[in-house]
From TrEMBL:
One of its GO terms (molecular function) is GTP binding. It holds the Pfam family EF-G_D2. This is Tr-type G domain-containing protein. Residues 1-192 form the Tr-type G domain. Keywords: GTP-binding, Mitochondrion, Nucleotide-binding, Protein biosynthesis, Signal. InterPro entries: EF-G-like_DII (IPR053905), EFG_II (IPR041095), EFG_III (IPR009022), EFG_III/V (IPR035647), EFG_V (IPR035649), EFG_V-like (IPR000640), P-loop_NTPase (IPR027417), Ribosomal_Su5_D2-typ_SF (IPR020568). One of its GO terms (biological process) is translation. PANTHER family: RIBOSOME-RELEASING FACTOR 2, MITOCHONDRIAL, TRANSLATION ELONGATION FACTOR G-RELATED. Residues 1-17 form the signal peptide.
Length: 621
């Protein structure tokens, strides 16, 4: 499916700082784009000045496809430079535009301006495109170049991001909107230009869920799906590739802003709103069946001459992309006990809509804890809970999500004998904790088993329900470290021995394992790990020195400095604790012209001095 953006730039003041920030994000994803200059009905409008601003700020050639048409001091239409037509909108009072062929007799001045603009357009394109330049040379005249050839050249150059087409209008007065939509269809990539990657699904439906919205009027969650291939039908069974689960579609809608129109099918290239999906979350990839996905993997592997492995194919289709680790957390409290259940349900729904939001329950404090990507992220969650669920929840102070890791290997055992009612519960468990450096341990690989003959024989006889209880106990035990109560990472837990008395409940087994884990962590001692971020700063050269000096005071390691057009790009690694409030500081240093992007890199050990500061921040003393 074609991916692109159309850009709205206000005629006054032109390209602003925040526009540059979003433009850089589009550059990162190599998206073709078109610029729409709005508010041309203003008396101080100057399209040529705005075009110059686009070229200067974005450092890319622009081509003006339309000219403004003003009658009696009022903006009433646009001139199509390619077709030499005047498009009038009747002051925006009607939806239908009137197209009038310009001629030297009917509109002599406007016709002359349009001809000059058409010649300039072809000149600009031929400077960047050899094929069009050769046609101009062979024909000996700009006038002999057909509009069809110019459109083909524009389509190619826009797709390759070598030029930016500019159209204009007044959204408030409904002037130029129709021609903007025509330009989108004409110049930007269509769904037929979709990646060959998803054509490997052949006739089968394939799409990605990019948004989940809960709508009580329509029976619960609505899943917005972008169709890469095939057709999706009402009542169809689908396979969630990301979660390896089947699901079933109820109704299908097409969204027109807030209006949802029910349909029976939606084809490739469109966005479908699917009702009835119970397991799908934002970011999931969907298809018709497991068989369809397996076949697509084989075709893709063959086309790319790569080994047919699950990991390779999953990477290509974006299945194995991991959700970033949350680096901030805070407690959340309902306004009353009666609101607790409603708050819990709201958080369940919000997690489905936003997989980067994590919700946990602290057994010791009895608090619900939110973890997210930043202060703004968690504030937005709170605002949504208030506006959408009518719950005025309170957020606790924002804290950095530190981690702890054991310093040395420790082995020990614990026996628990207790009587609950008439049932005697008896557990003996022996565990060891083993620190692992410079390796990220997945949740599934934390538990290891002793392979010594006697111990291995004992472990092999453990019932599955008891093994599940052991894993649950380990999870709870590693959830809070002894130093500042943070999650334990970079550790293996080895099971050496387990004895369970007849009738002993799984709850007793889990709690015994948890007690032993905490005992082992206390014996081993822990150190604090802090989240370190990959930082990318894009700024004009005149502000670079000030930004660099500021970063040097934030324990920053500079990895690389490059140029991107007229801007400098700095790549660095910085502890998250040093970047609190950085967006405000950067805006001040650069007068709002710089932007930055953060991505979690790793957890890293702190020095003793830094650790003392972290403990003080967490404990408050």
């Amino acid at each position: 499916m074609g991916s692109w953006l159309f850009w709205m730039v206000q005629q006054v003041p032109g390209v602003e700082a925040q526009t540059l920030t979003v433009w850089r994000q589009a550059d990162r994803y190599n998206l073709p784009r078109i610029v729409y200059v709005n508010k041309m009905d203003r008396s101080d409008s100057n399209i040529h000045m705005c075009c110059a601003s686009v070229e200067k700020k974005f450092d890319v050639p622009s081509v003006l496809l339309q000219l403004p048409h003003v009658e009696n001091g009022k903006f009433v239409g646009v001139v199509d430079v390619l077709s030499l037509e005047l498009i009038q909108y009747g002051n925006g009072r009607t939806k239908d535009a009137i197209r009038i062929n310009l001629s030297e007799k009917s509109y002599p001045k406007l016709f002359e301006e349009a001809q000059k603009a058409r010649v300039k357009l072809i000149e600009q394109l031929s400077d960047c495109n050899d094929q069009l330049a050769n046609q101009v040379i062979n024909s000996g005249s700009f006038d002999s170049i057909s509009s069809v050839e110019v459109v083909k050249t524009l389509q190619k150059m826009v797709k390759e991001r070598n030029v930016i087409p500019i159209v204009l209008g007044s959204s408030y007065k409904n002037i130029g909107i129709q021609s903007l939509m025509d330009a989108v269809i004409l110049y930007l990539p269509s769904p037929n230009d979709r990646s060959k990657l998803f054509s490997s699904f052949e006739d089968h439906f394939c799409g990605r869920a990019f948004k989940v919205k809960h709508d009580k009027r329509r029976g619960g969650p609505l899943t917005f799906v972008r169709l890469y291939n095939g057709t999706v039908k009402k009542g169809q069974k689908i396979f969630n590739i990301t979660r390896r689960e089947s699901d079933q579609i109820g109704r299908i809608y097409v969204a027109y802003a807030d209006d949802f129109r029910e349909v029976d099918t939606v084809e490739n290239g469109n966005i479908a709103v699917l009702a009835g999906l119970k397991k799908t979350m934002s970011g999931d990839l969907l298809t018709t069946s497991q068989t369809a996905y397996d076949k697509a993997k084989k075709i893709t592997s063959k086309n790319l001459n790569m080994s047919h492995t699950t990991a390779d194919a999953d990477n290509l289709f974006g299945i194995s992309a991991k959700i970033p680790e949350p680096v901030f957390f805070c407690s959340i409290e309902p306004p009353s006990t009666a609101s607790q259940q409603a708050l819990d349900q709201a958080l369940i729904e919000l997690q489905r809509e936003d997989p980067s939001l994590r919700v946990t329950y602290n057994l010791e404090t009895g608090q619900t804890v939110l973890a997210g990507m930043g202060e703004l992220h968690l504030e937005i969650i709170r605002d949504r809970i208030l506006k959408e669920y009518k719950i005025d929840a309170d957020l606790g102070p924002l804290q950095i999500a530190y981690r702890e890791t054991p310093l040395v290997k420790v082995e020990d055992s614990l026996r628990v004998d207790t009587k609950i009612g008439n049932v005697k519960n008896s557990v003996l468990v022996r565990l060891s904790i083993i620190p692992v450096e410079d390796t990220v341990i997945s949740h599934e690989n934390i538990l290891k088993f002793d392979k010594l003959p006697d111990n291995a024989s004992n472990i092999a006889s453990i019932f599955p329900k008891h093994m599940q209880a052991i894993r649950q106990g380990i999870d709870v035990g590693l959830n809070q470290g002894p130093k500042i109560g943070c999650q334990i990472i970079n550790v293996h837990v080895m099971l050496h021995w387990l004895e369970v008395g007849r009738g002993t409940s799984e709850t007793i087994i889990s709690s015994t394992v948890t007690q032993l884990i905490r005992k082992l962590l206390t014996e081993a001692g822990t150190c604090i790990l802090e989240p370190v971020m990959s930082l990318e700063v894009v700024c004009p050269s005149e502000h670079f020195s000030a930004i660099l000096a500021d970063l040097s005071r934030r324990r920053t390691s500079i990895n690389n400095i490059t140029h991107r057009g007229k801007n400098k790009v700095l790549f660095a690694t910085t502890p998250l604790s040093e970047l609190l409030g950085y967006s405000t500081d950067l805006r001040t240093l650069s007068s709002g012209t710089a932007s930055f992007a953060l991505e979690f890199l790793e957890y890293r050990k702190m020095s003793s001095v830094e650790e003392e500061g972290a403990i003080k921040n967490v404990r408050g003393f």
